[in-house]
Amino acid sequence: MPVQDLEKELQQEYNRFIEFGNLLDKRMRTYIVQYIQNKFDPDRHLIPSLNDQYFEYFQKALDRIFLIEGLLEVTAYNNHLRKQVILDILYWLRKAYSKSRRKNPFEDEQQRLEGWAVTPLHTFVKRWGALPDYLSSVYDRTELDHFFFKEKFKALIQTSSISEISKKDKEKIEVLFHDLLAQWDALLYAKILDFQLSKFEEEQESYIDFMSKKVTEYNKIRAFINPFTDYLGWDMSRKLWQETSFELLNHYDELLQNEQSLKELADLLGNMREAEIEIEEEEFEKTIIRQEWVVDEFSKSEIVGVKESDDLTNMLSSEASLLSDSQTELLFLKKYADKKLLTFRYEDKKLVTSEDHYTEVNQRINQKEKGPFIICVDTSESMHGRPEQIAKILTLGILKMAMNQNRKAYLINFSIGIQTLNLYDIANSIDDIAAFLKMSFYGGTDATLALYEAIRQLGTHEYEDADILMVSDFIMSKMDDDVLEQIRYHQQNKNTQFHCLTLGNDANENVLAVFDTNWIYDPKEKGIIRALTHGFQTIRERY
């Protein structure tokens, strides 16, 4: 996503936080947003100056987050990740503050205050004594001078009947009453806020600890698939990956580096189904409507001059005078015959509408994404040992290649039954991938279910352009005729490529003949892959 779009989305989230957030008041939320903006972009945003103890508290809380080692570094070069981290911080501020507000030990006192706040004066005069007595049990006199208010009320209220109190004393009672409520409200609000902030601090400790682990985790996986890291994203709602998953991934990654031929095969698969460019032509029927003024020869609304013609009805009087003298009569007849008589020239215009129709052809270039992979891995007992290790290493190699090229990959483990894993969502698949690398191979071999699942995936939008790779020792009986028919259909009509990697020398050749490309890897002879029907060079030429 372009930087401008990310900035626009962030600004919308900032505005939403300021307008609808539950954290203190709008002014405070505005300053918090400005402070976050400064931390991530100090050249464009100044640190706000606000002399407020609660703003200083949240400022210190944010500082502790920003001091997490590596946090600002991982967001400096990745705008997408920076946006996700900022959104997480805003979400956490709202969520943590809401959580702290739900556990309030001062609800009873708050209800009492609200009750006294709506008490009319005539009722207060009857039961005023209960208020200073209650406040004396809650607050020390240094906090709230309840004794002062009690004495003042006693002096002004000599009777319980409001009608017997003068208007001037009523006004004094009301002012004192509101002053007492205001002091009480301020003290209670301060207590509630202090409690909420203490609870907020507990939430903060937990959040900072989790955020620190997320940064460490992100750096680990970034090193594993460097340089393609935008794909990882940032999801604070997801639990941390298991440490054993990283250890296992690193172990198989080291094995992959030593298996140069497997690495070459994974890279070769990466060159297949590169991004295709399609040119689409669209035809548009266009109509242009024109309006213009043209001369109307049949309308005579205005004299615009004179002309030579034989039009006797519009002839000038000077021409008609030629008929009055026999000497000039001949001249008139000659001018009439030659159409040289001077006559009035009339002209009128009318608005004429015309339409032009034509067809316009536009070309649009569509670049389709690189094709995905479907990998079927034989996890039967006959694959135990070195073939099992090679299958796992190759699967990891294809996974890394797919991540670095932003390509989808779908893993199908098969023996008697099947297990599937969509490797496109790495953020939620690390532990599942590690579980596959850790699993033991056992059971019989039945490739039919795996191929049925692969063909089913070819019918989905995500994997309709996929190539299929099957990794197995191919010690198996023949495949179902129905499966073979569907494979031939996709090969001939959908241009789907079916590849296989054979681990060993005892494969069923009739099964291998189904595939477009066959490789053999001899587990006993490390680093040797040879093409059974088509060599590497042939594949490179095709792709």
Question: Explain this structure to me?
Answer:
The protein has helices at residues 3-20, 26-40, 53-66, 71-76, 79-102, 107-117, 121-127, 130-138, 146-156, 167-225, 243-258, 260-271, 317-320, 326-337, 386-404, 430-438, 447-458, 481-493, 509-512, 536-542; strands at 277-295, 303-309, 341-346, 349-367, 373-378, 409-414, 418-422, 467-472, 498-503, 517-521, 529-531. With 543 residues, the protein is of the alpha/beta class. It has three domains: 1-236, no CATH class; 268-274 and 370-542, 3-Layer(aba) Sandwich (Rossmann fold); 279-360, no CATH class. A seven-stranded mixed sheet has the order 7-6-5-8-9-10-11, sandwiched between helices. The chain has a two-stranded antiparallel sheet with strand order 1-4. α5 (79-102) runs antiparallel to α10 and α11 (243-258) packs across α16. The chain is flat. It starts with a helix and ends with a helix.
> What portion of the residues fall into strands of 2 or more residues?
15-25%
- Please summarize the sheet with the most strands: 7 strands, mixed
Distance separating the two termini = 29 Å
Structural class: alpha/beta
Record field, number of beta strands: 11
Low-confidence parts: 227-231, 275-279, 527-543
The figure for the number of domains is 3
Number of helices: 20
Report mean pLDDT, rounded to a whole number: 78
What's the overall geometry? flat
Tell me the helix content: 40-55%
Biggest sheet: strand arrangement:
7-6-5-8-9-10-11
Q: What would you report as the Rg, rounded to the nearest angstrom? A: 44 Å
